[in-house]
Design brief:
This protein is mainly α and 125 residues long. It has six helices and three strands, in the order ααβααββαα.
């Protein structure tokens, strides 16, 4: 399975710089070991409580999950829903509409990851 690159038009230095800055901004917001995993679980699970989210994102500590959720909430990817009318108070997390704009990006990354894994396995054998 060989993918041949189709030559693309060369970018101007200014366009390239802008492109790199945009990619850097995106990676800053969703990069790291946990953020995309959390976003994916939230998109697939709907409303989910903290402990259940921690179980589904295997290997993450409560402290790291808490920090990542705060960061994702600040960037508009996660909404924290507090049900204060219940005793004890129930806190759930849900992905936002803005978070769901990442679905095509996540799908493309998943497809690329699958293709890359196959490529590496073929090269090793």
């Amino acid at each position: 399975m060989e993918n041949r690159m189709v030559p693309e038009e060369r970018m101007t230095a200014q366009a390239c710089s802008g492109h790199l800055a945009s990619v850097e901004d995106a990676i800053y917001v969703i990069g790291g070991k946990w953020k995309l995993k959390i976003i994916i679980v939230l998109q697939e699970s709907g409303n989910i409580r903290f402990n259940e989210l921690q179980r589904k994102v295997e290997g993450i500590s409560a402290r790291v999950l808490s920090n990542e959720l705060k960061d994702l909430e600040l960037n508009g990817f996660v909404k924290r829903v507090v049900h204060a009318e219940q005793t004890p108070v129930v806190v759930e997390y849900v992905s936002t509409d803005y978070s769901r704009t990442l679905k095509p990006v996540i799908g493309a990354l998943a497809e690329w990851g699958k293709t890359h894994k196959i490529k590496i396995k073929e090269e090793m054998s």
